[in-house]
Amino acid sequence: MAKYVAIIGAGISGLPAIKQCLDSDLIPICFEQNSFIGGLWRYEDISEKNKEPYSTMYKGILTNTSKEMSTYSDFPIPADWPTYLNHSYVEKYIDMYAENFNLLPHIKFNTTVLKVSILPDKRWKVQYIIQTENKEKEEIFDFVMVCSGHHRKPKLPEFKGMNLFKGKQLHSYKYKRAIDFENKRVLVVGAGNSAMDIAVELTHVASQVYISIRSGKLPWITPRFLKGKTRDHINRFSAYIIPPSIRGKIKENSIIKSFLIPSHLKLPTDPLIATLPTINSEIFQCLAAGTIIVKPNIKELKSENNQIEFVDGTILENIDVVIYSTGYYIDYPFLEKHIYTGGDEIEQMYEKDFHDVVWLYRSIFPPKYPHIAFIGVALGAGAFLPISEMQTRYVTGLIKGSIKPLPSQNEMEISIRKYYENIRKNLCKSARSGIRLSYLPYMDALSKEVGCYPHPYEIFKKFGFNFWKLFMFGMATPIQYRLLGKDSWEGAKDAISLYNKFSFKNSIRGSRSYKSWIYILIVLLILLNRNGGFKKLINVYWKIFNK
Ligand SMILES: Cc1cc2nc3c(=O)[nH]c(=O)nc-3n(C[C@H](O)[C@H](O)[C@H](O)COP(=O)(O)OP(=O)(O)OC[C@H]3O[C@@H](n4cnc5c(N)ncnc54)[C@H](O)[C@@H]3O)c2cc1C
Ligand SMILES: NC(=O)c1ccc[n+]([C@@H]2O[C@H](COP(=O)([O-])OP(=O)(O)OC[C@H]3O[C@@H](n4cnc5c(N)ncnc54)[C@H](OP(=O)(O)O)[C@@H]3O)[C@@H](O)[C@H]2O)c1
To answer: Which of 8, 471, 510, 513 has the fewest beta carbons under 10 Å from its own?
Structure first.
């Protein structure tokens, strides 16, 4: 009998969920509280309307992941679009995707899910309200996919005197356009992508911009392009052959060598790979020009002269606006919290280090409730779209029963504990560390389960040496997961070649750096050979290829 799947949300996670259900002969019903698809990418200018925003997007946003790495695997973002997209391009792409796969008929618009509860037979009751009719209803489903996003509940800091301060205070989720802050003295709080983006935008209109960083030192900041490549350009060769610590050091050096950072500013002390870098191309110019001035954490806000005092004792006067760009809570108000946090005991064990604890096997399944899946609860070097898409391929395969079932509850718990211990060992403490993923290993692991892993040897056999070179040394675009196996796509090879053609054309260093990798490999092999290591290496590869 066909299974019914409830999908909550029609953003970039919900849409592939619908598509994968249809591909797997499951029956998807998607609930979307808005009257449109696209989730937070659908920008609306609310400045003149006195209402709560449904989206955190601001007018000047530019994606921080390249289109080549951000595309759905079977529907490439047009190769001639810009590398980094403004929200209007993302909206257009999402509309094209939904239309191409005829997804809209499966969405109930203007419908908010109020409560999702488990039934004794392990199915789920979904209670919802149709806003346009003001009518509450409920339906029963075999499976639920939660695709409602985790940038909806703003995190506001608590500082002394916030209630006394006479200037304007807002969270970044309400920030829409720089022009609203013309000639103002603005303090932006935070050092993540929202904070840096907003601070840079404001320098064009505000009379002075300050940025308060609670750690007192700059985070690692990566520009969108580094050494002629997009900052998220990864290739399989370096991802698997070069240890992450060395890759991190190479990147650190390129950043340090590319920018002059004013000497009075404190630089990051943790290694780049242990942190979540902020992505911004213009901030260094602003720091050098003094259009953005860095301050440490806030001590107190005062009513007198709109003063703000910082922990180092310095005081700013006449601050008109404070924009708290301090992130979001992971929150699913329609679910009992223990379902995705694992309950009080687990929360207490981990919340000191991670703030936002989610207890999900492979960042998707609560071990106790394997009939509900969370899509897009991830943060890593890669883009959200392909991660969400791969997760939905994995989940629908499991619902359909066409792939290896999930391990036991105990095994899933052990796996999550290992995940957190690994993060504790290797990453800095941060609210955002708890949902960190390493893009390529994560995608490859899921693709092996799904049955679409692009095995290098198989790629070589099927497509020949020239394409294999591109596959190994070109960018590891998600389209690679449509080359072989389940739901492979005829156009994948050409689409990958086209993306790499554009990318290499744009990169003056492209072919040179590719050749240098070959030279490094040859030198490494020669060195290894001196101690019989070459033979050992061949044996290891032989085992991997024949797995
Ligand atoms: C400012 C900003 C910029 C970003 N830039 C990038 C980027 O460049 N690259 C990248 O990869 N990622 C980026 N991200 C991460 C971003 O979260 C993802 O790109 C993506 O939008 C997440 O999609 P989603 O579908 O999971 O969630 P959302 O886009 O939040 O969509 C969730 C949907 O669920 C609906 N919904 C929620 N609750 C209910 C309910 N109870 N009932 C019914 N419907 C509900 C919402 O209306 C919404 O349509 C950015 C995030 C932010 C905040
Ligand atoms: N252009 C883009 O594509 C773009 C733009 C904006 C946002 N985004 C995405 O949207 C998501 C959210 O980004 P975000 O920047 O809004 O949030 P974020 O990544 O969670 O960053 C929050 C920042 O606020 C700081 N902070 C948190 N609590 C604080 C407190 N109490 N006092 C002082 N500082 C505090 C954090 O400091 P610590 O580091 O010390 O915790 C961090 O620097 C991310 O996935 C991001 O990549 C993308």
So the answer is: 513
